[in-house]
């Protein structure tokens, strides 16, 4: 108990429960936030982490139970109300207006007023200070949609920091950040806690999260199942309490490698200014083979995969799928030929938010159920049920709206949807981001099974350990080129060194 009392309790949930119809997202949780400490919340997808945080930050109201702030019961009318009392939240799903500037996003709804209206110059100055603190070169006037995903996440973080909160809730803030950006964020977190700010942190990146954790809390099925200070826990403790078991992500599957399924030849992809993001890249991928592309954010991995999928245009080179040049084909035609991409920004690119879980799952494979003019409802339902089971989506059923799923479960739907198209070549761009360790093991199992049946897989990741447990071959990308290639017996350090990453002790 000693560590529990080091920092006084500033905010607490008392018997807080939240139900959505029949779904009991939280079942009477007691949770304390201590002054000047980092409390990290672990749990599987759908465990109730975001729900609890939304309640503490006034975004939603509990069905029963109470919030206690500085010893006094409070009821927040909305997020602004909570923010006025010093509680801010960085949401798991980005909530920025894409066509507005960084500055306007940060000050939206609380503009700085000068003598003659909004004081844009002062706003701009403050954004520059924040960006400096976050060591990010982002111009305040850039429209958010021109930033890469990780930078958009930085803008979210900057917005929360600009409020000067006592309690800052971060729901998976690092999912799209590079290793060095994470380091900067952690430095900022340490500065904040030193000044007495309390942080609540949520992440599926367990090892990373442990490095800043003072207290770990595990949620499971809407209950708080474990609570301990950092000194008493390790990775095993977290996983055991999260899922009741230990997961081994295993080693690359044994498969028979077949013919070249995908051949990328001299491919170049320019950015808006004409600079090459992918620079004359060559890569052959064989049937039954799992190739991991490792690299830092900005190495050109996403641009490479999106160009092969037909979302971006190349300035030079060829893309050959099973012997046929496909550069001229539309995205849809490439999918029809068996080439599929699980995109990086799944929230925006992968899902139709107004549709149900089932509709989203079957959308891409609709051709398979069409006989003449009619779709076979039974086949479609079968596919939906299979997909939900395969990728372990936690949902009330296929009819549930996609927005009712937890963040990680929405991502699993995207992966399930793509697998259901029965591709011959599948490209996954950071697929494990935001999904829990059990689901990650499940995705690995599905890919291994696919490879045994001849599926060719490109798996892009910024986690070295993932490469080592899934890939037959590891390609390192650096500045748009392949900087090294290894088989699966390589060491972690060698891979990181080839990516241009400084390998710390
Ligand atoms: N608006 C909603 N309507 C119906 N059910 C909901 C809604 N929001 C959340 N849920 C359900 O509540 C449960 C908890 O969801 P929550 O988003 O809190 O999970 P989480 O722990 O944050 O998961 P993840 O790691 O995937 O982000 C899930 O079963 C989810 O489907
Ligand atoms: Mg969540």
From TrEMBL:
GO molecular function: ATP binding
Residue span, ABC transporter domain: 11-246, 262-504
InterPro entries associated with the record: AAA+_ATPase, ABC_carbohydrate_import_ATPase, ABC_transporter-like_ATP-bd, ABC_transporter-like_CS, P-loop_NTPase
Keywords, sorted A to Z: ATP-binding, Cell membrane, Membrane, Nucleotide-binding, Repeat, Sugar transport, Translocase, Transport
Superkingdom of source: Bacteria
Name of this protein: Sugar ABC transporter ATP-binding protein
